[in-house]
Amino acid sequence: MNRNIYELCFVTDRDFLRDISLEEAVEKSILGGVSMIQLREKNISKEEFINIGKSILQITRKYNIPLIINDNVSVALELDAEGVHLGQGDMNPIEARKILGENKIIGISISSLEEFEKSKNYPVDYYGVGPIYTTNTKKDANPAMGLENLKKLKKLTDKPLLTIGGINVSNVHEIIENNGNGVAIISGILKDENKIYENTVNISKKLRTSFIKKRLDQKIEKLREKNPLIYHLTNTVTINDCANVTLAIGGSPLMSFCLEEMDEIIKISNGIVLNIGTMDKEMRNILLEVGKLANKYEKPIVLDPVGIGATKCRKELIKNLLENVQISVIKGNLAEIKSIINWSGKSKGVDSLDNSLEDEILDLGKEFMKKYNCVLGITGKNDYIFSKEEIIKISNGHEKMSKVTGTGCMTASLIGSFLGSFENDFLSTILGIGIMGISGEIASSQCETLGTGSLRVKIIDNISLINSEIFLEKIKIESL
After folding, report:
1. In this predicted structure, what is the pLDDT of residue 135?
2. Distance, CA of 24 to CA of 3 (rounded, Å)
3. How would you write 191-244 as a 3-class SS string?
4. pLDDT at position 278
């Protein structure tokens, strides 16, 4: 997983440990998702510090996690650790840089905007900011800075802000929302030495979810500014609704089944939606050619393999496509994705008959990612989005949506619209699936006494009205 090293730092404190060793605590925290270790030892000799450091360094090097030494430059130098963290009363960072060299990480603690002003010209890589909240871990801690000062500080520097002090699983999201770059935690990880791994996993998941939500902000508005042209080779049952949701989210739909004009169309399009819902001879002839042209002109593709398990013809068509065309995103229900990689499971028509457990879905997605170099979206009661680095679960939507034909096809159009606005493949899939789920939820509440025809219209209405504020307020997203 490609992560920022400042995302989750575990600051060690042996005073919390009774029945397990520091080495075991450090390894459990790394397995739980820690991205950096800060070895903090007070009131011990340099020799003892170095011996402890050597033992911890074996673990951090095993997992390629940087080890930062708290306060002691000479220990960091002796160990050849990745860096040092300095307090305001410790060695001046200018001197530390001369000793450690340009390639080592140096951080400095600041507890106020005034301390930042004194430190802003030092040759440091990050600022350790805090305490943000009141903390009982450090007895001589300064007064809490608060989130407002964190936001102010971010406007003054481009360097990472690693926050500390009173941070736990219940408030880590506030740090990211207020422009912190990561968190350094002691008691939130060590509060129960028998649950260090579990505590770290929970914090890491919350952090990654918060980082992803932050990356999603203003994406809807940016799409509408760009108004991308989205070509659809899609099924004729839902073609009108696909056009309407593309318009509703801010794109421009283009539909054609004419092979003779396809080169010109793909060249000017920003994104491509491929959907095999209503198979016919023309679809079989044109699908592969569209895919190859999209690759030629470097246009992103979302593929919706509708009903692939229903017939041999559909399966062969998709197999041929995936062997010859690089797809950006594949979106399908559980049965459809199983059919692509020949997992056992029942499939009939366009509907999934599987009520598989989450573990099975996760196993399927991971197996799929080994075979195909693209983002995967598995839709259902809960939706799961896979990339090489991340897995996201979305829990929006409403059971009434199953009574409206084509919500899946419309979702592919939403994904394609974000792809066409030059958005990241993974984020485009989250946005497309999330917007459909949220719009379906709102529409269902608006149609409690109305029929499914009204529900279909209300879904499109709500897609046209959604903005980033509504999206971020209502999205139910979880990093797995």
Report:
1. 73
2. 23
3. CCHHHHHHHHHHHHHHHHHHHHHHHHCCHHHHHHHHCCEEEEECCCCCHHHHHH
4. 85
The whole-angstrom separation of Cα 240 and Cα 153 is 50
Nearest Cα to Cα of residue 271 among 382, 155, 421 = 421
How far apart CA 86 and CA 83 sit, in angstroms, is: 10
Rg (CA), the chain: 26
Token pair of 284 as six digits: 């079989």
Cα gap 301→409, rounded to integer Å: 14
What are 73-90's pLDDT values in tens digits? 999 999 999 999 999 999
The dihedral of CA 308, 310, 313, 316: what is its sign? positive
**φ, ψ of residue 9 in degrees (nearest 5):** -105, 130
DSSP lists the bridge partners of residue 129 as: 110, 163
Give me 330's structure tokens: 């594949």
The amino acid present at 386, given as its one-letter code, is F
Alpha-carbon distance 336 to 350, whole Å?
8
CB atoms within 10 A of CB 89: 7
Compute CA 358 distance to the chain's CA centroid, rounded to the nearest angstrom.
18
Q: What is the dihedral of CA 341, 344, 346, 352, to 10 degrees?
A: -50
* Axis crossing angle, helix 196-216 with helix 22-32, rounded to the nearest 10: 30
Cis before 131? omega within 30: yes
Query: What is the 3-state composition of the chain as percent helix, strand, coil, each rounded to the nearest 5?
Result: 50, 15, 35
Tens-place pLDDT, residues 24-66: 999 999 999 999 999 999 889 999 999 999 999 999 999 999 9
pLDDT digits (tens, 9 = 90+) for 187-221: 999 999 999 999 999 999 999 999 999 999 999 99
Query: In this structure, are residues 429 and 329 in contact, taking their beta carbons and an 8 Å threshold?
Result: yes
- CA–CA separation, 301 and 188 (whole Å): 43
